[in-house]
Amino acid sequence: MAKYHITAAGNASVCKAQIKCPFGDESLHFETAPEARAAYEAMMSPMAAKIKRSLKSLDTDGLRQSIFAEAQAAGFDVEPIHRAAALATELHEGQFRSAAPGEKRPPYITHPLRNAARMLRWKTKVPERVTISLLHDVVEDSPLKFAEDRGIKVRDEAHAREVLLAHIKKEFGARVASAVHKLSNDLVDPEVRANQTLEEKHDGYVSHAEEAVRDDQDVLAAKIDDVHDNGAGLYHTDFPARKLKTRNQAIKYLKLIPKLRAELERNPYVDEPEFQAELEASLDLSEARLKWMLSK
Question: What's this model's pTM, rounded to 2 decimal places?
Answer without folding.
Answer: 0.83
